[in-house]
Amino acid sequence: MASYVFDPSAQPSVAVEGTDARFPVRRIYCVGRNYASHAVEMGSDPEREPPFFFCKPADALLEDGATLAFPQATDNLHHEVELVVALRSGGKGLSLQQAKATVFAYAVGIDLTRRDLQAEAKETRRPWDAAKAFDQSAAISALVPTEDVGLSKDSEITLAVNGEQRQYAQIGDLIWSVEETICALSKLFELKAGDLIYTGTPAGVGRLVPGDRVTCSVAGVGTLELQIAEKSS
Ligand code: MN
After folding, report:
1. Distance from the CA of 80 to the center of ligand 1, in angstroms?
2. Measured in angstroms, how far is the CA atom of residue 30 from the centroid of ligand 1?
3. Confidence (pTM)
4. Which tens digits make up the pLDDT trace of 131-190?
5. How far is the CA of 86 from the centre of ligand 1 (A)?
6. Could you tell me if 116 and 97 are in contact, meaning their C-beta atoms sit under 8 angstroms apart?
7. Backbone dihedral region of 200: left (phi > 0), alpha (psi from -120 to 50 degrees) or beta?
């Protein structure tokens, strides 16, 4: 055992349905735009853009049923419901077939975004980290192993705030499929067991305010609930 100058941080992990064993998280990758409807609402042309990626730190995870402390430094916190993929293995330059074999489980996630900071970053051509990679910015449900998942092109992905539906799409609306996304990502990074991929959000992203209750689901995978706390200061 190595010795450290202080105790290392705890290993980030996510619950797995059907077992007490947890999924140890290595990295969190996110797809920037992956539904035509959302690309259009953000002012892009969905036809011409290959997938692009950004990251969140593994310790930004927030589990199902949690209360999100309202993030500092934003007046425009946005929800982005997403299908999340959890990898059991990885590699570089994977084929579609190899990409498929890396998938361990699926989950429902929310890519929480400080939209005001993202707009500023876009305008000034600066990185997105402050907009995307803040504490508690990666909400996630328990993982559901692939053998228990019933995903099809018709599976609905939805998000509601205080019971009112804001986001809706079908998984078949993804511009890049799960396998294609893994494939593309593996051409940029060596993927490994423990990696999570947030696969992008459909149209209807919007503002969350203190006190909001967020409920979302991916049919065939599961549900995720979040409470937004009152603003502290
Ligand atoms: Mn997103």
Report:
1. 5
2. 6
3. 0.96
4. 999 999 999 999 999 999 999 999 999 999 999 999 999 999 999 999 999 999 999 999
5. 16
6. no
7. left
